[in-house]
Amino acid sequence: MSNKDEKVIEEFGEEWTKFDYSSIDTEKLKENFDQYFSIFPWDVLPKDAVGFDMGCGTGRWAQFVAPKVKTLNCLEPSDAINVAKKNLLNNKNVTFRKETTENCSLSAGSQDFGYCLGVLHHIPNTQKALNDCTRLLKSGAPILIYLYYNFENKPLWYRVLWKISDYIRKFICVCPKPIKHFLAALIALLIYFPLSRLAYILEKIGLNVENIPLAFYRKYPFYRCKNDSLDRFGTRLEQRFSKSEITEMLTKSGCKGVKFSPNTPYWCCIAFKK
């Protein structure tokens, strides 16, 4: 059975074509990049490192990785690969493949590193997709993974709010495209943006904002809120995991030395191929 959802791939292709991040300040993107890659062991990579970006989308992370390595293989199953090609036009060491995790043409054991951020939880069988990623790695090679977390480190009231929002997602994601995009943008305007700005103000006066919903977006522009609102409420396939579940999946995929970032976004972790 194929481990992909063609409708999900199509919808993410449309989303990343609309939100191509070409208008976003590079410094803001770099700040976000550093949040994900703060635990990445750049020092263990060989000078001629070859690696992969699985589910590269618009190439927003690849633009910062490519200058650090010899070759970066960007893989993306949707039409967003065309946006990535445009955004990374000046990076001559980047290759592009319109492929999924299961039909990836890279050879097993050929990659010095890999990363897959915010992708595997949108694939039907996350474990199998993770296995397909790790098989590409050489022994000892690092892989950086970001998977949606199940709010295990949040209070009960926070998890209840999320559960309510998930019922809303299940309604919005099946709406006709114009309605879905309108509702996602409305949520960004009426919920994401106000709550994130409230968190920004409270943090400025010295308060802890960790448990304020959507505080993660307090330093990001409304564009990011709109994109992530559509990303969150527009998708029909979303899975969430605990730390222990992610550790178990990585172990089953042949990795060791799993280490989680203590910072948002949760859960971002690094592991090494055995």
Helix content: 40-55%
CATH top level of the largest domain is Alpha Beta
* Mean pLDDT reading: 96
Rounded to the nearest angstrom, the radius of gyration is 18 Å
CATH architecture of the largest domain: 3-Layer(aba) Sandwich
Overall SS class? alpha/beta
CATH level-4 homologous superfamily of the largest domain: Vaccinia Virus protein VP39
Task: Give the number of domains.
Answer: 2
| Spatial separation of the terminal alpha carbons | 28 Å
Looking at CATH, which topology of the largest domain would you report?
Answer: Rossmann fold
Shape: globular
The strand line-up of the biggest sheet is 3-2-1-4-5-7-6
Secondary-structure element order, N to C:
HHEHEHEEHEHHHHEE
Describe this structure in words.
- The protein is an alpha/beta fold and 274 residues long.
- The protein folds into 2 domains: 6-150 and 240-273, Rossmann fold (3-Layer(aba) Sandwich); 156-233.
- 41% of the residues lie in helices and 13% in strands.
- The protein has helices at residues 6-18, 26-37, 62-65, 80-87, 126-134, 156-172, 177-204, 222-233, 243-252, and strands at 50-54, 71-75, 94-97, 113-117, 142-146, 255-260, 268-273.
- A 7-stranded mixed β-sheet has the order 3-2-1-4-5-7-6, sandwiched between helices.
- β4 (113-117), α5 and β5 form a beta-alpha-beta unit.
- α1 (6-18) packs parallel to α4 and α7 (177-204) packs across α8 (222-233).
- The model has no long low-confidence stretch (mean pLDDT 96).
